Every structure is written in structure tokens, then in C-alpha cells.
Amino acid sequence: MRPVEVFSVDQRLPKQERLALQRDIDRVFREGWSVSDPFLVIRAVENGLPFSRLGVMVGRKHGKAVRRNRIKRWVREAYRRNKAELPVGLDIVVVPRAGVELDYHTVERSLRQLAQDLERKRRSRRGRADRGSRRS
User: Fold this and answer.
1) Which of 7, 110, 120, 126 is spaced 20 to 30 A from 41 at the CA atom?
2) Whole-model pTM?
3) How many other C-beta atoms are found inside a 10 Å radius of the C-beta of residue 122?
């Protein structure tokens, strides 16, 4: 009997695509714009990079650490699986709303819809900036 070969593919979110520094997260909240639905609030700001970076903030109102960490894993996994559909060149902070029942599929569906809203809002902001610069 031959041994079974197991291939392990690293599917983690690369470190460069994570928002790890507090100053970067603060910048998103200070300068960014937001979109939301009953499940998630997403804040974003242009980052000038050829890829987006993700930060996840889950408050204590969601429960104990095990529950909060599970929600963070769900958000990161939904982001990783749907990266091709998400806007590029943004620093994104996802904040799940407290008091709503979340599961992975709800998080993924919400993230995909809000990503579309985020891109529309981004285009409208760029359009306003372009129109404003022509007047000067």
C-alpha cells in the first residue's frame, strides 16, 4: 500500500494584507468613509497600494473571547475567499454590529454586498473630487 500524499496549501491572509498598526486603523476612522447594513459596518480609505489591507474590530458586546475570535475568523475567511470581487487599494476595517445573530454565511453575504456599495461610494467620491478640482 502506497502512502497518501497530502498537499498543504497556505491559504492564510498574507501579513502585508492585514492592518496591524494602530495608526493605520486610526487613519481609516479619521479620514475614511463607511458603508453598512444590519450586520456589518465597513470603513475604508485609499491606501495607495496595489492591494487592500483588512482590519477587523469585534467589541466585547459580542461575547467572550472565543466568540469574538470566531467572528474575526469568519470575516477574514470571507474576505480571503472573495478577494477577487473586493475593491483594491483600500485600507478596510470591518466592525460587526452587536446584538445581531451572525454566522459565516451571513458575514460572507454581507461583506460581498457592502464591497459593491463601497466601490460605488468610492467612485462617487472620486467624481466629486474631480468636479471640485475643475472649478479651481
Assistant:
1) 126
2) 0.85
3) 18
